[in-house]
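User: Predict the structure for this protein chain, please.
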Amino acid sequence: MSGYNDSLIDEIRAILTGKYRGIGAEPYVKPAMCAVRDVNVMSANNDTLTDEIRAVLNGYHRGIGAEPYIKPLKLISVKPGEALFRFTVEDTQLNSSGYMHGGVVGILTDTVTFGAAHSLVKGGITGTSLEMNFKFLLAMKKGQTIDVKADAVRSGKNLILCSADFLNEDGKLMCRGTQTIYLIDPAKFIRSQDSRKTLLRRDSKL
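Assistant: Here is the predicted structure, written as structure tokens:
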């Protein structure tokens, strides 16, 4: 397009095309559609709550291509406001330098904190992320076993404050992610989704 530097555009295009080729993060730059088949659940201290969290995780990223990143997650234990997960770092989660990709950390943080948040409210929650932050302290490498301790605290009527600590085998903190979740009235959410579908059907006829 006019006003742009063609050489620079070619350089950026080459970077985007080749940066993640052949490594685990390729789906980030190449859209993928897949379904979550199962999340392994190990011994947990609350069977009913565990079943609820498992159902949430099984359907959480269905159909949006995030399966390779959350599939290694295993739920170890759960109680109201707390959930402990474990996974081993796999090829699909690596960046071009061979370390855990920051974007994958974001997906995992989003998943485990929503899991912890669901444990606070009977029947689960409907919500959306307001903000998410990370502090990367140590690099996570392929083959490492990582525990993720997710905590959620209700703050007021509509907010849940969450954190996710990524710990190595020695219990050393590798990364800390935080997230604020805004709770949505399920009835309003359904109405907004119905309105959106109506608009999409109308636009498709134009």
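Residues 186-204 form the longest helix (19 residues).
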